């Protein structure tokens, strides 16, 4: 990590002395995201070039001690970080005009950067450049003893055909499992932590001392200029294996990332499909994802809908739900048939595909939508989705009707003191027309968002 202070040609020492005794401006600081740029590089020639891939971290400010995530005490500060995706080391080039304590102290930049890059941060630029040749097989040396996993073709919906096309076109793709009770796995993950912190929203390092963690890395074999073959790391995933009574386990995906240079090429989908196969082949209870972001949830749902469309045991249930719409005039009925799968279908999906009930229900409406004719049945479909979401979010009307909440005087905590009772004359109680209107407006927006999601997933699945 290099630090350079830039000096002017005419420092004017007398003027500076006067400034020391004058009232100085309060240091308002600078946001970390406004003065730090981070580049991913594959060769030493890319170091120093702004044409290299510049990443957009999720939240740089959170790594700095100040409560507002700002850097204090520097004028003209610029920090450029070069991160090698060959050796997985980093070097920070720090340049500033001057430093002064404007009332908030002077931020310890080295400590702050080590919060992100830890042991991967190299102090000397020459040492960093040497890692491109010295550690050219860094990934290969660590995954050499790992377990190689492959997707498995199947005719019952347990695999995704598009991923086999991807593997056929890239026969050098491998997913390798490294347990955390293995030193190689721990060493590799420690070098991946900066990428997880910078590119996975809300991420924190896993506990590598816990053997129930497993690291899955996606690699591709490439040849260098001398004809030597080395694996390139395209992405990785961290899974936790929970105990499930009495003699099973549950797999939870905690982190997954495809490195920016390799995104939008189908590699994330390929990696997820391999993880699905692991869950099935090892007969875990189910496979879950921890707080998936919208993009990951969308990808997962596309994969699961395709698997479910080829899963025979639920086809009769899907056709039965679709037939309800083909009968027509649901909108004229007092109540709608529930847009839910039967319990035996939910259990069959969990047992065979390891898809949780929550995720299956998320996919169910999409499966039904794919079976109806939108130009004929869309009005009824919208009403069914709206009815289901109303029950989920607001509750059954019969259960909520007549309930009242009344504040009561107290010397304790006014916000915690109230009485709820059911009115016998169907009075609306404290619920006003305005609150009901707001509730309906929020429900309408949620329904619109859900319908947009259903249409988008259906379009993607149909196009594959």
From TrEMBL:
Quick check: keyword Transferase in the entry?
yes
Task: Please tell me whether the keyword Acyltransferase is annotated for this protein.
Answer: yes
Look up and give the organism this protein is from. Cucumis melo (Muskmelon)
Its name, as the record gives it, is: histone acetyltransferase
**The EC number(s) this enzyme carries:** 2.3.1.48
One GO cellular-component annotation of the UniProt record comes to: cytoplasm
Q: Where is it chiefly localized?
A: cytoplasm
The subcellular localization recorded is:
Cytoplasm; Nucleus
Lineage of origin: Eukaryota, Viridiplantae, Streptophyta, Embryophyta, Tracheophyta
Which InterPro entries does UniProt cross-reference here? Acyl_CoA_acyltransferase, GNAT_dom, Hat1_N, Hat1_N_sf, Hist_AcTrfase_B-typ_cat-su
The similarity annotation says: Belongs to the HAT1 family.
User: Catalytic activity annotated for this protein?
Assistant: L-lysyl-[protein] + acetyl-CoA = N(6)-acetyl-L-lysyl-[protein] + CoA + H(+)
Signal peptide boundaries = none
Question: Which GO terms fall under molecular function for this chain's record?
Answer: histone acetyltransferase activity
Which keywords accompany this UniProt record? Acyltransferase, Cytoplasm, Nucleus, Transferase
User: In what residue span(s) does the Histone acetyl transferase HAT1 N-terminal domain sit?
Assistant: 30-201
N-acetyltransferase domain sequence ranges: 232-284
